[in-house]
Design goal:
- This protein is an alpha/beta fold.
- The chain has one domain: Nucleotidyltransferase, domain 5 (2-Layer Sandwich), CATH 3.30.420.60.
- Helices cover about 35% and strands about 25% of the residues.
- It is built from six helices and seven strands.
- A five-stranded mixed β-sheet has the order 3-2-1-6-7. Strands 4-5 form a two-stranded antiparallel sheet.
- The longest helix is centred in the middle third of the chain and has 23 residues.
Length: about 150
Amino acid sequence: MNPIWILVANQAEARIYSASRLSEKLTPVHTLTHAEGAAHVGDLTDDEPGRVHDRMGPARHSMEPGAGIKAGHRRRFAKEIVARLEAAHMQGEFNRLVILAAPAMLGAIRKAMSTDISSTVIKELSKDVVGQGLDKIQEQLRRAFTNKSEVH
């Protein structure tokens, strides 16, 4: 029986674990990192933020850097993660997938997934648990799968 893969991801790191059953100890399979995901928006741009005038009076303020920069990096990292999953699935390394990802990253991963990979997903949890140990991740999985028959 092919193992179940568990993807734990946020915008800076993705860890893939494997288990025959979710009730068993998770085995690390692969780690992907994305340094830009942990960077501050200001560190990802070359220029100072633009400046605007108040509607009334001589005051000027700097504009907030666009959230699009972080979203673009998140999309690229999601595509990298999904490419790794697709390659492994084509090799027969797994046939079921559980995803625990930070909310924004989960959305980016969903959008990047092909129908083939999305059909392997048996559970999604919108939680950032990357920095937690294996025990905490397994506890999240136990809570998510309350019915024992789903864990096999």
